[in-house]
Amino acid sequence: MTGDAELLVRLVLLLLWLGLVSIDERASASLGFHQPIVSGSVAGWLMGNLDGGAGAGLVFQALWPGLLPVGGTLLPAVGIAGGIAGAVAGWGAHLAGTRALLTPDGPLLFGVVLGLVAAWIGGAWERGTRRRNLTREERALAASGSLLDALERARRWALFDSALRGVLLGASAVFLAGIVYLWPAALHLLGASPVPEVGRALRPAAFGLGLGGLLFFFDGPRPRPSRPVAAGLAAGVLFQLLRGL
Amino acid sequence: MDAAEVSANAAPAAPDSGFRLRDGAWIAGRDIESLYNHAGQQRGGVLLGLLRLVPEASREHPVVMALLRGPFNVNPVLAGYLLAPLATRLSRPAPGDDPAVGAGGAESDGTAVQSAQAAVRDDAAVERARGLLAPVLSSLGDRLFWGGVRPALSLVTVLGWVLWIGQPAAWYWLGYNAVQWHWRRRAWGVGLLGDEAVRRELGGRLLPRWIAAATGTGRFLLGGTAGVIVTWLWMRERLEPREGARGGLPLLFLGCIALGFVLARRGRPGPLTLGWIALLAAGAATLARHGLGGLGH
């Protein structure tokens, strides 16, 4: 497998993992995948460095234990945050200690900053999810026919809503990390990109955004006109990138 | 609760119970949060879990009707204490579903009265679970898991990472799931014994003991972590931990730990908070001694 293909596979697996983390965090099962140390370690491992990811996850784990969800309080999405921080730290592990990123812990610090932003956005997303859940529940309770089937249908949309949060936030963060930070830093340090062309660095990130865009298309039983447009745009960009590179 | 009701609740605990212990805890409990919203809270998820166990239950069953009337919220791990008795009630036919009712004659009249009484009891049981038991369980569950088990396990991960004791993520994941599955199964098992068993359990010493043990362990580990991190900062060159743990990482830990606890417990500076603040102070003292530049090399 070439380096590009391997990176692509890694990124796809990372986005799937973040989708699972997001579901585990707010919607179903709660098996502990959403704990930052777990999500960060696995994300770091997927991106090539487990210990780097664990260190980043641990930062959020240290921030996390004090938060108390009283009465359905909206919490920051720390599972996704840990995963994103772990992925960035793991991906940039080869740059740790080099000072190419201003500090020896550059990938970690950048990952943590991205994770904090993602945690905040993820919390805001959760507010929207709860609003949409109310609509889903009301529709299920009002539906004729089997109540169980109607509730199962509503649950599937709710799970999808949560998964979408993880995938989109992860794709955005990976895109930012790859384009804004890790790639220029590697260029600065090594004199050459870790991947031969800018486009190659863009491709997997665009794939993630495209995947998120396509998923977005299926959000909810009442599609809005903007959704297929966004999905089409993402798919078009993805197609062009894959075709041209 | 009268004696007849306790007896009726206790019946499904027999070996031929329709609700298997492990499957019930998983099937009924895993999606409680899935449809969480500000109006019904966990109502949709609770209904979903119960209907998965008793798919033949009708919309008009008193348990379903009572659940639909208002919000429902309980600690997801301990939810079995409430869901198992409700599932037991749901498995009994609703008055309208009983073919004997409405057949005419004095015998069927008597059956109708019994069914109506059962419906009233079902309704009261849901209201009791919603208004009385769920808040108690939520309080106990939050103290056990959010205030005890999770912080303690988080400290285990910090120690495991700094001291190179296995993979911290594995420690957390295994530890948390061992504890939560113990309680999910126990809650479901006790719940199947009936309301009286649940009330005995909640009034007993077991849960408070677990809470005290988890909190005490957390405090012990907090002290241990403080010592380890301060030593690490002081003797950084010789005690360098894993790859990637360079520079300001320990300071980042300290900052996050202190910030997390101050944010969560603002206005309530207990011993735990003071311990965490002491940790931050130790880090700051070390920083003052070595300087920020020295930590980066």
What are its keywords?
heterodimer, A: 245 residues, mainly alpha, 8 helices, 75% helix, elongated, B: 297 residues, 12 helices, 70% helix, disordered N terminus, disordered C terminus
How would you explain this protein's 3D organization?
- The complex is a heterodimer of chains A (245) and B (297).
- Chain A has 245 residues and is an all-alpha fold.
- Chain A has one domain (3-64, 73-195).
- Chain A is built from 8 helices and no strands.
- Chain A has helices at 3-26, 36-46, 50-63, 78-91, 106-142, 147-190, 198-217, 226-244.
- In chain A, helix 2 runs antiparallel to helix 3 (50-63) and helix 7 packs antiparallel against helix 8.
- The longest helix of chain A is centred in the C-terminal third of the chain and has 44 residues, at 147-190.
- Chain B is mostly helical and 297 residues long.
- Chain B folds into 2 domains: 3-136, no CATH class; 144-190 and 197-295, no CATH class.
- Chain B is 70% helix and 0% strand.
- Chain B has helices spanning 3-10, 21-29, 43-53, 62-68, 80-90, 105-162, 168-193, 195-203, 206-234, 249-264, 271-290, 292-295.
- In chain B, helix 2 packs across helix 7 (168-193) and helix 5 (80-90) crosses helix 7.
- Mean pLDDT of chain B is 74; it is low at 1-16, 244-248 and 288-297.
- At the A-B interface, helix 2, helix 3, helix 5 and helix 6 of A face helix 3, helix 6, helix 7 and helix 10 of B.
Give the overall shape of chain A: elongated
Q: Give the total of beta strands of chain A.
A: 0
Major beta sheet summary of chain A: none
Distance between the termini of chain A: 16 Å
Largest interface: A-B, 63 and 63 residues
Report the order of strands and helices of chain A.
HHHHHHHH
What structural class is derived from the secondary structure elements of chain A? mainly alpha
Low-confidence stretches of chain B: 1-16, 244-248, 288-297
Whole-number count of domains of chain B: 2
Query: What portion of residues of chain B is helical?
Result: over 70%
Mean pLDDT of chain A: 76
Computed structural class of chain B: mainly alpha
Low-confidence stretches of chain A: 193-206
